[in-house]
Design brief:
152 residues; mainly alpha
Length: 152
């Protein structure tokens, strides 16, 4: 109660005016102008607002500081709505959402083709040693073509 009564003293009239402005801003729900919203909706803008709120907590009336905190959150929310970043964060898919959709699309049932290929006997099983072939390849007529080794 003491902090509320100290707000009405003559030396704290600036703080009282700021409290009234904050209350009017919160009640009326005014839209944030585009240039201000563009400045606030950046990392630097948000850091500056947080520093201002922290300094108000340290050096001014607690009622003013709490109102400043509420106004700061509301200003950041309204600024993100004005710049469109809020909608982008809500509706643009994240990488996790995209990957879950892709894995859902890539789940196929076991097909007949996969079954036939699995049943085919491979030419060479993995892990077996190479054996010498029982046949010898023959070189057909080259018809004056250059050899592959590059020597003439």
């Amino acid at each position: 109660m003491e902090s509320f009564s100290s707000l009405f003293k003559k030396q704290h009239m600036g703080e009282l005016v700021l409290v009234i402005l904050f209350i009017v801003y919160l009640i009326l729900g005014l839209k944030t102008p585009e240039p201000i919203a563009n400045m606030v909706d950046t990392l630097v803008g948000k850091i500056v607002i947080i520093i201002i709120v922290i300094s108000l907590f340290m050096y001014s009336n607690p009622i003013l500081a709490v109102l400043a905190l509420l106004v700061a959150f509301d200003l950041m929310r309204r600024s993100s709505m004005a710049t469109g970043l809020d909608a982008l964060q809500k509706f643009a898919p994240s990488e996790e959402k995209k990957m879950t959709q892709f894995t859902a699309y890539n789940q196929f049932p076991y097909t007949l083709e996969q079954e036939v290929v699995a049943k085919m006997s491979p030419i060479m099983k993995s892990g077996s040693s190479l054996t010498q072939a029982s046949y010898k390849p023959l070189l057909d007529n080259l018809y004056d073509a250059a050899p592959l080794t590059g020597s003439n």
